[in-house]
Write a structure and sequence with these properties.
alpha/beta, three-stranded parallel β-sheet, 2 domains, binds flavin-adenine dinucleotide, three-stranded antiparallel β-sheet, FAD/NAD(P)-binding domain
């Protein structure tokens, strides 16, 4: 479980360009989770993104049980659950008046160790994945674009 942001001494040396086995272009949720999986398999990766910093808007807000089941396999499910909010119910409002309530409860009881929908906004989720990658010894290069890297490769 990841309890705190890494200190410089806890960061393992990132791979040099010659050591990189897989280059991942795009540090959104897809690229970050792929990077974590490959790192978990002992594959040395570099992940680059044209954006200078991770997203700051929520976008996707719910993490489904199957995602958490996959996360458990790479040891990050507990931290995600801890940072998220288990969705017990939704209240529906129409013109200022409560119109209904949908109870979710443990809708996946008996089917999954994570029998609920978990609210965890995408920006916080991406930051957590990046923390896990840093602690795991990989390195993300913000501000790099695929075309810039290709230019360097042919120099
Ligand atoms: C307003 C909004 C609301 C949303 N709400 C929901 C929701 O409620 N529920 C839900 O499930 N989903 C929602 N989504 C969708 C969700 O955000 C996406 O499914 C998710 O971000 C996809 O992740 P990704 O990693 O595949 O792509 P992205 O998040 O798009 O990440 C791609 C990354 O690649 C980088 N990149 C692109 N081209 C290059 C290049 N040439 N060189 C280097 N880097 C590059 C980009 O900068 C970006 O960081 C929403 C999206 C938006 C925009």
């Amino acid at each position: 479980m990841i309890n705190s942001l890494p200190t410089p001494t806890s960061i393992i040396r990132p791979p040099s360009v010659r050591e990189i086995q897989v280059l991942i272009v795009g540090a959104g949720p897809t690229g970050l989770v792929l990077a974590l999986w490959l790192t978990h398999q002992g594959i040395r990766i570099r992940i680059i993104d044209k954006a200078a910093e991770p997203g700051t808007t929520s976008r996707a807000i719910v993490v489904q049980a199957r995602t958490l089941e996959f996360y458990r396999q790479i040891g990050i499910a507990d931290e995600v659950v801890e940072r998220g909010l288990q969705l017990a119910a939704a209240n529906l409002w129409v013109r200022g008046k409560k119109a209904g309530r949908v109870a979710f409860g443990e809708m996946g009881r008996g089917l999954s160790p994570f029998p609920y929908a978990l609210m965890f906004p995408q920006d916080g989720h991406e930051r957590l994945l990046i923390e896990c990658l840093i602690i795991g010894g990989s390195r993300s290069s913000a501000g790099s674009s695929w075309s810039a890297l290709r230019m360097r490769a042919t120099e």
